[in-house]
Design brief:
Helix content: under 10%
Largest sheet: 5 strands, antiparallel
Distance between the termini: 35 Å
Shape: globular
Radius of gyration: 19 Å
Strand content: over 45%
Structural class: mainly beta
């Protein structure tokens, strides 16, 4: 779109980390079948580690106050990684995974989290087999790392070794097709890959083809097998999705038409059925120049949160009709410019907004009853950030 740099330009040139997201991963409640590394030693609850995936400054380490959300810079980040714009934790919490940008192919890498929160490289970088890697997630079983390549429109799976490092690529699928927007949808653009709450199927959201693909992941071989494909409204540009904790529905943020769509989810077959869409902005706001990005859901499934880039806000939506519908409640300023990523803290009491262009992290407390967001202190000044991951 002419109003902002292309994703490729950002990946290659920015200087300055579900969604499944933190809340959805916690809501899944799935035990790990993979041995993996041991859990980290418990830390005091008053202050916990938080990591930022940035453009140009690697992975930055911070701590956050679990009551107010206040951030403070900390030692222990990892600077020697190119544009780690998305981060994820292992089920046990002792390993951090990041995308690795730059070059003809994207990569993924693991980092051991020390007792003090400091990161150390765990194994080497593994190729995702495609260009412009933009998202990753850990399968709830703990045995595989999933990744999405935006520029080339493909998805991949990698084995996770017993020590938590990333092993060989075990699965790869190249998407095909296009959409009605000639600038943004000339070809496939896989933007996210996540697993449903029950761990039964893997889902890839493709902005370029207006599709959400369902895959089966073979727990032994790690191969990805196509199961079904759900089509979005033509030109919507689906970007990221999040499942309701109950598993019966999913919600997709559409980047190109400033809407969010509810889908019915068949847990037995993995099939998604598109339901209604609604705007992510109040009715009196012109959606021109607005591009929704991240979506998250409260652990109780009552509220969905969505970031609006351009309007620079975080929308709060109420979940209604047993999960089949959403209602826009309000929007609040994100605390900066271009909120690329939002996430809830593990306890759901805080929400963070990674404001990519504004180089700030917006900090909010979440009302347990109403889901309302209240800014907590001043935004935290930092690098150009693509992902924020509280632990």
């Amino acid at each position: 779109m002419p109003s902002r740099p292309t994703r490729r330009a950002v990946l290659l040139g920015a200087a300055g980390l579900g969604a499944l997201g933190t809340a959805a991963a916690g809501a899944a409640g799935i035990g790990t079948a993979h041995a993996g590394p041991p859990p980290r030693t418990a830390r005091p609850l008053a202050r916990r580690p938080l990591y930022l995936g940035t453009y140009g400054q690697g992975i930055l380490a911070c701590t956050y106050d679990t009551a107010t959300g206040a951030l403070a810079a900390a030692d222990g980040g990892f600077g020697d990684v190119t544009n780690p714009d998305f981060l994820a934790l292992s089920p046990a919490g002792g390993v951090l995974y990041s995308t690795v940008g730059g070059g003809a192919e994207g990569g993924v890498r693991a980092y051991a989290i020390g007792a003090d929160g400091a990161l150390s490289a765990l194994g080497g970088v593994q190729s995702t087999g495609g260009a412009g890697v933009t998202h990753l997630s850990v399968h709830p079983g703990g045995g595989h790392l999933l990744s999405a390549n935006y520029s080339s429109g493909s998805v991949a799976a990698h084995a996770i070794e017993a020590d938590g490092s990333v092993g060989e690529r075990t699965g790869f699928v190249q998407h095909s097709g296009s959409g009605p927007d000639p600038d943004r949808q000339a070809g496939p653009h896989a933007h996210q890959i996540v697993t449903d709450p029950a761990g039964g199927f893997v889902y890839a959201v493709d902005l370029g083809t207006d599709s959400v693909h369902t895959y089966a992941l073979d727990p032994g071989s790690g191969a990805l097998s196509p199961v079904s494909e759900a089509k979005a409204v033509p030109g919507a540009g689906p970007r990221h999705m999040v499942f309701h904790p109950g598993g019966t529905h999913a919600y997709v943020a559409n980047e190109l038409d400033s809407t969010v769509t509810a889908y019915a989810h068949d847990e037995a077959t993995g099939e998604l059925t598109r339901l209604a869409s609604l705007p992510t902005l109040p009715g009196d706001v012109d959606p021109a120049g607005n591009y929704p990005a991240e979506i998250a859901i409260s652990a109780d499934g009552r509220f969905v949160y969505l970031s609006n880039r351009g309007h620079d806000s975080v929308a709060r939506l109420a979940v209604e009709d047993d999960g089949a519908a959403l209602r826009l409640v309000d929007t609040v300023p994100c605390g900066g410019n271009w909120p690329r990523h939002i996430t809830l803290s593990p306890d759901g009491a805080l929400l963070y907004s990674a404001n990519e262009r504004g180089r700030t992290i917006g900090v909010f407390t979440v009302d347990a009853g109403t889901g309302a967001l209240t800014a907590s202190g001043e935004p935290f000044a930092t690098a150009s950030t693509g992902c924020v991951l509280p632990t």
